[in-house]
C-alpha cells in the first residue's frame, strides 16, 4: 500500500499569499496518477487536480499541480477567501487508492 | 447534470450491518464506476473500494475485505454499500463518488454523504 504524507499539517496564511502544499509518497506513483481535492466543513470533497497537473473543469488557474515519482505539490498562487479549506492528495496508480491525511489552509 | 443522492443517516448497534444507497442521475449509469469513501469525525478520507457499474466487478481495500459488499442495480441506477459487523470506529460519513471518466481511477462527482453512527 502506498502511504501518502502531506505537509505541513496546517498552513496559516493571509488572503493574497501563495500556498505551497506537499504530498510525498512512500513509493513511486505510476504515471503521475495523483489527484488533489478540496474539502470545506460540512461538504463533500471537490476535485481540483488530476494526473498530477491537470485542472478539473471550472477550477481557477490560481490552482496548479506539479511533481512526479514520489513528490507532488499543489500551489495556490494567490489565496482567495474561499480557498481556506482542507486539501487532500490521492494516488490512484495502485490499489488501495490511498489518501493523504490532509493539509488545512487557515486564515492567519 | 450529474447527481448522486444518498440515503439518510443511520444509527446502528455494534455487530449490526448497514446498507447505504446512492442513486445516480444525469448520466449513463453503466458507463462509470462508483467508489465509496468514508470520513470519521474530524478525520481524513479513507477509500473503501470501487464497483464497476458496467459489469459489477469490485475492488475492495484489504482493510474491508470480508466485511463490505458493493453492488449496483442498473434498473434504478443505484449503487449500494453494505458494511457488516459494525464497530464503534465505523462511525463516519460515507460518501459515494463517480469516476471522472470511465475507469479513470479518481472521482469527480460526490454524493452528499451519509452519517452512520455505531453506538450501543
TrEMBL record, chain A:
Biological source species: Homo sapiens (Human)
Ig-like domain sequence ranges: 1-90
Keywords: Adaptive immunity, Immunity, Immunoglobulin, Immunoglobulin domain
Cellular component GO terms held in the UniProt record: extracellular region; immunoglobulin complex; plasma membrane
Alphabetical list of InterPro entries matching this protein: Ig-like_dom, Ig-like_dom_sf, Ig-like_fold, Ig_sub, Ig_V-set, IgV_Light_Chain
Subunit record text: Immunoglobulins are composed of two identical heavy chains and two identical light chains; disulfide-linked.
GO biological process per UniProt: adaptive immune response
Keyword Ribonucleoprotein included in the entry's annotation: no
Protein name: IG c384_light_IGKV3-20_IGKJ1
Amino acid at each position: 500500500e502506498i502511504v501518502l504524507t502531506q505537509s505541513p499539517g496546517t498552513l496559516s496564511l493571509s488572503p493574497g499569499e501563495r500556498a505551497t502544499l506537499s504530498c510525498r509518497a512512500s513509493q513511486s506513483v505510476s504515471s503521475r496518477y495523483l489527484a488533489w481535492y478540496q474539502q470545506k466543513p460540512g461538504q463533500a470533497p471537490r476535485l481540483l487536480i488530476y494526473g498530477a497537473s491537470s485542472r478539473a473543469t471550472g477550477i481557477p488557474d490560481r490552482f496548479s499541480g506539479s511533481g512526479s515519482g514520489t513528490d507532488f505539490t499543489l500551489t495556490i498562487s494567490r489565496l482567495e477567501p474561499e480557498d481556506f479549506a482542507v486539501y487532500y492528495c490521492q494516488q490512484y496508480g495502485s490499489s488501495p487508492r490511498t489518501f493523504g491525511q490532509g493539509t488545512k489552509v487557515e486564515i492567519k | 447534470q450529474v447527481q448522486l443522492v444518498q440515503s439518510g443517516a443511520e444509527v446502528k448497534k455494534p455487530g449490526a450491518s448497514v446498507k447505504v444507497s446512492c442513486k445516480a442521475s444525469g448520466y449513463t449509469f453503466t458507463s462509470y464506476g462508483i467508489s465509496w469513501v468514508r470520513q470519521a469525525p474530524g478525520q481524513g478520507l479513507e477509500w473503501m473500494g470501487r464497483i464497476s457499474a458496467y459489469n459489477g466487478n469490485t475492488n475492495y481495500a484489504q482493510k474491508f475485505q470480508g466485511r463490505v459488499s458493493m453492488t449496483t442495480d442498473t434498473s434504478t441506477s443505484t449503487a449500494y454499500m453494505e458494511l457488516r459487523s459494525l464497530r464503534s470506529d465505523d462511525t463516519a460519513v460515507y460518501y459515494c463518488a463517480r469516476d471522472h471518466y470511465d475507469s479513470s481511477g479518481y472521482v469527480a462527482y460526490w454524493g452528499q454523504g451519509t452519517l452512520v453512527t455505531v453506538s450501543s
